[in-house]
């Protein structure tokens, strides 16, 4: 992404990862990996695409923050995260994005996780 966005990108990246701390562990792992991959994938995009990318992630961070606050105030103890994705928005996605969304949905809805993402880079014995 262009240089003038670097501090904004870094702050947003950190904010999203911080917000993920309220997610259940398996969703946090999945979300963290997705965020890291997406931000890495968009490092070299043009200014217009960088602007759209940042706007979408800022909306995501705002929604997740609101949901985290609502879940803290919810007395049932059942946390609820996510939002409806309207068909009009899906129509704007490129084929690659639709594929990523399908993979993400499949991974998020697996009954038994097939992966383990570790924060540590040390090998576990």
Question: How would you portray this structure in words?
Answer:
- Belongs to the complex I LYR family. SDHAF3 subfamily.
- With about 120 residues, the chain is mainly α.
- The chain has a domain of about 80 residues.
- About 60% of the residues lie in helices and about 0% in strands.
- α1 runs parallel beside α3.
- The C terminus is likely disordered.
Summarize the main sheet. none
Q: What percent of residues adopt helix (DSSP H or I)? A: 55-70%
- The proportion of residues in beta strands is under 5%
Principal-axes geometry comes out as: globular
Number of strands: 0
Tally of helical runs: 5
Rg over C-alpha atoms, rounded to the nearest angstrom: 16 Å
Mean pLDDT: 83
H/E series: HHHHH
- Residue runs with pLDDT of under 50 for 5 or more positions: 114-125
In angstroms, what separates the terminal alpha carbons? Answer: 39 Å
Helix-strand makeup class: mainly alpha
Subcellular location: Mitochondrion matrix
Keywords: Chaperone, Mitochondrion, Transit peptide
GO biological process, one term: mitochondrial respiratory chain complex II assembly
Organism: Gorilla gorilla gorilla
């Amino acid at each position: 992404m262009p240089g003038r966005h670097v501090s904004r990108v870094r702050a947003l990246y950190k904010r999203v990862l911080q917000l993920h701390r309220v997610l259940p562990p398996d969703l946090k792992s999945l979300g963290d990996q997705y965020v890291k991959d997406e931000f890495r994938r968009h490092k070299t995009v043009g200014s217009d695409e960088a602007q759209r990318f940042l706007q979408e992630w800022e909306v995501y961070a705002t929604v997740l923050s609101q949901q985290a606050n609502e879940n803290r105030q919810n007395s049932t103890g059942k946390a609820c995260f996510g939002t409806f994705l309207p068909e009009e928005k899906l129509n704007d996605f490129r084929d690659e994005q639709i594929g990523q969304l399908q993979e993400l949905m499949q991974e998020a809805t697996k009954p038994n996780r097939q992966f383990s993402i570790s924060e540590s880079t040390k090998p576990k014995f």
